[in-house]
Specification:
With 68 residues, the protein is mainly alpha-helical. Helices cover 54% and strands 9% of the residues.
């Protein structure tokens, strides 16, 4: 497991705001750990794996023939 990052720190990696990172979590797009009550922390390796998996699924959908 990597060092856990704040939403702002993870946002810097993906060039988005911390608010966007928290929204992604709220929407169920990325995992997070809850620390100190309600503080979210993110494992960058876990987040990267989830995002890569989502991207692969999206590519497969784009390549599959449309259903008639």
């Amino acid at each position: 497991m990597s060092a856990l990052l704040s939403a702002d720190q993870l946002g810097e990696i993906y060039t988005v705001s911390g608010r966007t990172v928290r929204r992604w979590h709220d929407e169920g797009r990325i995992p997070a750990e809850v620390c100190e009550g309600t503080t979210l922390r993110f494992d960058p390796d876990q987040v990267a794996a989830v995002l890569k998996n989502r991207a692969r699924k999206l590519e497969k959908l784009k390549k599959s023939p449309a259903l008639a």
